[in-house]
Amino acid sequence: TLLARQAGLDGVVCSAHEVKAAKKLWPHGFFVVPGIRPAATANGHGDQKRVMTPRQALDQGASILVIGRPITSAEDPDQAARAIEATL
């Protein structure tokens, strides 16, 4: 995080489990966080190991949430996205 900041970047991609510490070191940084899964994901975490719910990730300091398969693999992707949005 410090190297990215010193290099003049606006932000980084990091795990939701690191975003709180990164935000503390770089309060105005931009943090893209993958591995976001709704609390009730039927197929578990898939290949993701370091997952967090959307609300938890935002509370930790995430700027952008990357939510892939829970939406794209859903029977109704629009409804899946709206259900996730409702938790925010």
Topology:
Blueprint: H1 2-6, E1 11-13, H2 16-25, E2 30-33, H3 54-60, E3 64-65, H4 69-72, H5 77-86
Parallel strand pairs: 1-2, 2-3
Structural account:
The protein is of the alpha/beta class and 88 residues long. It has a single domain (2-86), classed as Alpha-Beta Barrel (TIM Barrel). The protein is 41% helix and 10% strand. It has 5 helices and 3 strands. The chain has helices at 2-6, 16-25, 54-60, 69-72, 77-86; strands spanning 11-13, 30-33, 64-65. Strands 1-2-3 form a 3-stranded parallel sheet, covered by helices on one side. The longest helix is centred in the first third of the chain and has 10 residues, at 16-25. The radius of gyration is 14 Å and the shape is elongated. The protein starts with a helix and ends with a helix. The model has no long low-confidence stretch (mean pLDDT 89).
